[in-house]
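In this supplementary section we document a worked example of the pipeline. Step one takes a protein sequence of length 121 as its only input; no multiple sequence alignment statistics are reported here. Step two produces a three-dimensional model, which step three serialises into structure tokens for compact storage. The input and output of this example are shown verbatim.
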Amino acid sequence: MEPTQAHNEKIAKLTFASVYPAYLAKVEKKGRTKEELDQVITWLTGFNLTQQEQLIREKVTFDTFFQRATLHPNAALITGVICGYRVEEIENPLTKQVRYLDKLVDELAKGKAMEKILRTT
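The serialised model returned by step three reads:
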């Protein structure tokens, strides 16, 4: 299933600041930490903690967030289904990048080992 253009536009307009608390609540509810979440975001985007906090303060959209990001070279190894979509089949680059992040957060919440989440093994 491929996201619609309207779906892609909605995702582009979401702010990182509005989604970050939901990511944090999801992982903490499952016993993971803010530090682990931040590590996952840093791995995918190249943003350190200070940069992440600045992006939250600026209330940047996901469009701006991923324009500024330097995606990890192994990001393409992120596969599977998230939110009803198979990540590797999503054609819109921004929607794919957002779903990469969603998938990593989901794996963290499900207790997957950090080495596996960060595609180092």
